[in-house]
Amino acid sequence: MYTEGRSGPPPSGGVAGRSGRALPRQYTHRRVGGKMSEDAARGRDRQQVRAETARFDDPRELGRLLPPGLRIGLAQSAFQTEGSLEAGGRGRSVWDDFALRRGTIAEEATPEFATDFVLRWREDLALLVDLGVDELRLSISWTRLQPDGRGPIDRGGLGFYDRLLDELAGVGLRIALTLQHRDTPSALSGGWMNRDTAFRFGDVAFEIGSRLGDRVADWITLDQPSTVFLEGYALKNQAPGAGRLFSALPALHHQLLGHAVAVEALRSADLAGRIGLVDAQAVVEPASESERDGAWAALADVLQNRVVADAVLTGVYPSGPEELPPFLAPLAGVDPVDLARISAPLDFYGVAPLAPQRIAAGRDPALPTGPGAPPALPFHARPWPELDRTGDGSPFAPWAPVAVLRSLVERYSDALPPLVLTELGASYPDLPDRQGAIVDTERIRWLGAHLGALAEAVHEGLPLEAVQLWTLVDAFEWQHGYTRPHGLVALDSRSRDRVPKASFDWLRRVLDERS
Asked: Which of 249, 413, 437, 438 is the most buried (most CB within 10 A)?
């Protein structure tokens, strides 16, 4: 299934692929730029990947390999952790509404409690200190500050974040704060389909910056606008579940306009911290050497990897492959003034790495058809049978995050600010042993392989400043509910007690070994 985050477009008429057929030029550039498909993915099977990465299981070896200047942190989001959805006058978000619809969340799970972070954040703070990470990325719940997405700031909601940031700063944690992590206020009619939402976002950004800005090192305006557009507005997989396919492109543009307005608001608040955004990136390649799969993979690449980055870093939206219908035509008529604002310089660029994608033409055959069937994109992802898989079926590919970062460096060159890798993590089923301990060996193997590959790339000159792992405590994983645990710490489903896994102790030892 084609999962979170994709982007795509490109012109055609390119160089010949290995079959001799012409592939779209920008697609071939993508493959070479990331050094991933030819020299990493193809020709490497699960045994070779394991042999090349097994040494990173050793916390001493990995810790000593980590570059001294590379920050290691953790990431989380408000809606996925906070709980207390009715407390203090908090308003409803699009995710509150989406989670109430029958069949939208795995096992009909509810985010009502999540990890209970609002009530138990001091326990998590103690865990962070014990772990020894450098920084924490967290987000603000917009509706906890402005229940209706506009108007005065709620004093109770502000007080919660004020105390939280004070305590985080007090123990020496570097703070990265996301202003909008997918939970847009329900009261804002149309959500991101409405241009006015961008300006309401700018208003709350100024208020947050003015009141909390003295403790925040890195400001992230938006989390993964490409994912919000694709999963929530084009499809119905995530909130708000609009299912408008490419007619939802205004929701993408208005998010980026909101980013621009928020950057302007934060700059006017005279902050000391840096400003950036986070978007999703993935290795994308065709499932076969056919021209048809190549063209659709090129579109997937633009949607996943270029539509946001091109606009933010170059001030131009990309176009789609000439062989395909003009899916992205609505972006061609965007006001150049908007794009000038969207492409204002940033201090860093955040990348949320997604699983690598092998793209084939046509609707996903696993999806239902006929009356009432959900909308689907005209392409879908195929499996990587030669590689191991994580608990959610994603390929075990430690070369992939390095590949997408190198591709960004090659494509955008001097226009690209320093990089931060966010939300690096994997889902595996966690089964306690007879003593109740969770020995998550597969997660340790996954984290070691990926951190080792990134550390080696930084030593080779990759301009990566930080890696933020997803996440501390098993959280509410959007439409998957609690079925895809990613945390270093398990959560008792009834008591909400925290139970550190073996991966928690492993990472603590890795960080202790740093030079």
From this structure: 249
